[in-house]
Amino acid sequence: MRGAVKAGAEALIKERDYLSELDAKIGDGDHGLNMARGAQSALEALDEQSGAFTPSGMMRVVGEAFMMNVGGSAGPLYGSGFIAGAKALDAPDAALDAKTIGNFLHEFNAAVQKRGKAKLGDKTMLDVSIPLEKVFVDNADMPLAELLKLGRETARNAVEYTKELEAKRGRASYLGARSVGHIDPGAASSAILWREVSLYIEKNFLATAQAE
Ligand code: ADP
Ligand code: MG
Which ranges constitute the DSSP H helices of the chain? Predict the structure, then answer.
């Protein structure tokens, strides 16, 4: 979990300018800064706690770091999603498998929807994380390596598809129809996170990753 968080956090920090450029088109241009700040504080919070530590405990620390250190809407939304997702990792049968990842995504999405009141198609991060949840729920029998790859393809396509959507929630909704034609920054950050974390799992636990 520590390695997966690190991989995701470093990617967000690296993509800071790209994410802010996307946000400059349909928002206020700070999404990269927000996510990089969340990522940095999550890394620091994990470093401070090096004792006996469960995966769900780490996920909670990451969520709290986003909640406490990130302004804007994405910080509290991701933060509450991570904290809720941690519950799925507490289950007695939690393992590195499709069921647990699906449960994590389910809790994440429920919390983000509860807080932000967005639904599928509103041009938000949920337009990546809801299709991802569906991949894991619908194909739980598929080998994990294939599922992770399918998840990456799904996330990539879902990000592209946000171009077609009109924003109904968040700052971009002020633009109405003028938000069409642009990628949603939160959808992009979700796909980056998913790509890095799933590649990390493949490389370190499945050893089947190939260049994509
Ligand atoms: P802010 O909009 O406050 O500047 P950010 O720029 O960091 O915050 O994040 C913007 C992203 O947050 C959007 O691209 C969108 O994906 C996501 N977002 C905004 N509002 C909501 C909401 N109500 N539900 C889900 N996601 C949202
Ligand atoms: Mg913004």
Answer: 2-14, 16-26, 31-48, 55-69, 74-90, 98-116, 126-138, 144-161, 185-201
Q: Which residues surround ligand 2, an ion (CB under 5 A)?
A: 23, 27-28, 30-31
pTM tops 0.85, yes or no: yes
Interval 164-189: pLDDT, tens: 999 999 999 999 999 999 999 999 99
Residue whose pair of structure tokens reads 């998840």 in the numeric block:
151
Q: Is 171 in the pocket of ligand 1 (CB under 6 A)?
A: yes
For residue 141, count CB atoms less than 10 angstroms from its CB and return exposed for 0-12, middle for 13-18, buried for 19 or more.
exposed
Task: For residue 190, give the ligand 1 atom closest to its CA.
Answer: 16
